[in-house]
Specification:
Helix content of chain A: 10-25%
Oligomer: heterodimer
CATH topology of the largest domain in chain B: Four Helix Bundle (Hemerythrin (Met), subunit A)
Number of helices of chain B: 5
Distance between the termini of chain A: 94 Å
CATH architecture of the largest domain in chain B: Up-down Bundle
CATH architecture of the largest domain in chain A: Sandwich
Radius of gyration of chain B: 27 Å
Strand order of the largest sheet of chain B: 1-2
Radius of gyration of chain A: 27 Å
Number of domains of chain B: 2
Strand order of the largest sheet of chain A: 4-1-7-6
Number of strands of chain B: 2
CATH topology of the largest domain in chain A: Immunoglobulin-like
CATH class of the largest domain in chain A: Mainly Beta
CATH class of the largest domain in chain B: Mainly Alpha
Largest sheet of chain B: 2 strands, antiparallel
Number of domains of chain A: 2
Shape of chain A: elongated
Number of helices of chain A: 1
CATH superfamily of the largest domain in chain A: Carboxypeptidase-like, regulatory domain
Strand content of chain A: 25-35%
Structural class of chain B: mainly alpha
Number of strands of chain A: 7
Distance between the termini of chain B: 96 Å
Shape of chain B: elongated
Strand content of chain B: under 5%
Chain lengths: 135, 169
């Protein structure tokens, strides 16, 4: 009986010691908290760009399709500044297979220019500028 | 029966000593605000600080000067504001991965040009419209950069009690 009580006492002491050790490490700055990441490790680069007209003015509320070759894509619209943003696809998607197109009633797409090559920094998006011409 | 009790007391004393040692070591070595014996670090304000230092006060002063039809001061503040945007775009060319020079250009270039015309013409109504456009551009850029909660408006009072905005005759 007394040996059982002694065993329980030792186990309780051990648990207390481990708990204290962990809390001291955390208190001393032994554990850290990262910032919210815009891109997780599993994602490829995000996609960003402007839609402009032929004068260079940005075009708000244009429809932008960011598609992956043979796999569909996502549709978004430009904001008040004429920009669009699409989060990264899976890492298995090659950015070279991603195509951007834009559209707005009264306009036709004139050209699409990718402004930057895929960066190793996942926070830097792939920039594609789409130009619309009044039809 | 006394064994576990002694072990518990000894364990508690060891933990308490370790805690005191860690805390005293932390206090001696570092303050949350840095090491007083370190070399001065280069001042490197980032986007939020630059906006508060270089952009927001100049936007305010430009609006107050235009409202008072103090055109020389408005022209001066417009130049200062333009330079502020140029400094921000050079100091932080990318923010959250986005191209700051392009965003600034899209947000404020056109209204800044219209403000320049309005000030040179001393044309109050065009100034008001262009200033409203500038303010909308600021807020559009905040929305694009996921800071839509930072809402800029046309100033309705001066936050510079030590500066006269009315033109001096």
């Amino acid at each position: 009986m007394s040996s059982a009580i002694r065993r329980v006492g030792w186990m309780a002491g051990a648990v207390l010691a481990i708990a204290c050790a962990v809390s001291i490490a955390a208190w001393a700055g032994g554990s850290g908290f990262g910032d919210d990441d815009d891109n997780s490790e599993e994602e490829g680069p995000s996609y960003f760009g402007f839609v402009r007209d032929t004068s260079g003015a940005t075009v708000p509320d244009a429809k932008v399709t960011v598609g992956v070759k043979n796999r569909g894509g996502v549709v978004t619209r430009t904001d008040l500044l004429g920009t669009y943003k699409v989060p990264g696809f899976g890492k298995e998607v090659d950015p070279k297979d991603v195509e951007v197109s834009c559209d707005k009633p009264g306009y036709k797409q004139l050209r699409v220019v990718r402004r930057s090559s895929p960066s190793s920094d996942p926070k830097i998006p792939i920039e594609t500028e789409c130009t619309l011409q009044r039809s | 029966m006394r064994g576990p009790l002694i072990a518990g007391v000894v364990g508690a004393v060891i933990m308490a000593s370790a805690t005191v040692a860690v805390l005293s070591d932390r206090t001696a070595a570092q303050s949350p605000f840095g090491d007083p014996n370190a070399e001065p670090a280069p001042f490197n304000p980032q986007m939020g600080a630059l906006m508060s230092m270089l952009i927001q006060p100049r936007h305010t002063k430009l609006g107050l000067a235009g409202n008072a039809e103090n055109w020389p001061l408005a022209g001066y503040m417009l130049k200062e504001l333009r330079q502020g945007f140029a400094v921000v775009a050079k100091a932080v060319p990318r923010w959250k991965g986005l191209p700051v020079p392009d965003l600034v250009d899209a947000a404020v270039s056109q209204p800044l040009t219209l403000l320049d015309y309005a000030i040179k013409l001393k044309y109050r109504r065009q100034f008001d419209e262009a200033y409203e456009g500038l303010t909308k551009g600021c807020n559009a850029c905040h929305a694009t950069t996921d800071h839509a909660f930072v809402v800029i408006k046309v100033p309705d009072a001066s936050s510079f009690p030590d500066q006269e905005f009315a033109p001096q005759r």
